[in-house]
Amino acid sequence: MLEIFTGKKKIFVTGCAGFIGFHLSKRLLDEDFQVIGIDNMNDYYDLNLKNDRLNRLVKHQNFQFIKGSIENLELLDYIFSQNKIDMVVNLAAQAGVRYSLEHPESYIQSNLAGFTNTLECCKKYKVNHFIYASSSSVYGDNRKIPFSEDDRVDRPISIYAATKRANELLAYSYSSIYKIPSTGLRLFTVYGPWGRPDMALFTFTDAIINNQPIEVYNNGNMKRDFTYIDDVVESIYRLIKKGPPKNTRVPYKIYNIGHNAPLRLNYFIELIEEELGKKAVKKYLPMQPGDVQETFADIEELENDINYSPIVTAEEGIKRFIRWYKEYYQISKKN
Predict the structure, then answer these.
(1) Average pLDDT score, the chain
(2) CATH of the domain at 235
(3) 288: phi then psi, degrees, rounded to nearest 5
(4) Is this structure's pTM higher than 0.85?
(5) Locate the NAD-dependent epimerase/dehydratase domain: which residues (predicted)?
(6) Number of structural domains, the chain?
């Protein structure tokens, strides 16, 4: 049986053992919210990392964890029926642009079927606000810089991007038909401590420390709007505190969450080398299918609505990540 929380606001966080889900859940718990978290604990990447994140959450008395999948509608319905959930933050998804080319079925199940199940429960149990993770990948190979929420996003160039755009359309439909207030978050290359091992900063750091070559696509001549995890969490937290969109016709809103300062990949690698005190052995490769030349977030809407813009520079963010990495993996100072 699920414990039924009483009193404080309850937020249902899907993907709570994931990178962003862990950091957001911790922040909400620190702010005295009650968090019900669900995660299927799949092996897309190192389960030890997911378990270590989760172990830090379960220490909080206001946290309840359910191991399960949002594709399981019966389980979701039971969770909602046993708890008066005020708000849902849907971060559960099969991640990774390149992985989607090889395993499209994983994305259809998690990012579409699971997403729809969550919306169905929000409808049935009259949740006050549905917040969900979209992605900068919905912009595809957009040539207009910076990317604005008003830009066309009907030409995704990866399966992952297509599922994220589909999420936005599904959320809009439910907001329009059932008046479920929803807020979409187009996240731009989130990085930081406890990050995903398949992301560039993690893979580069790991390879350089272990004297392995790093794969650099398009000769490093790509730009990414790298966004530090604390800035992402602060933005989401302020959107939670702000409350749901107030539009009475369709209570629906989308925000870019990015640093608004893209970095060239080669410079990003130089910052890692500088912090590690060690040069990378680079293996240059062509642009990969599904990749884009540049991402750059226009964050005017976000700044106007929550009075916040990201503040952690790449120089500082990389330093914090590498400090965490060395501590977590017990890397000696000589490395």
Answers:
(1) 92
(2) 3.40.50.720
(3) -90, 150
(4) yes
(5) 11-258
(6) 1
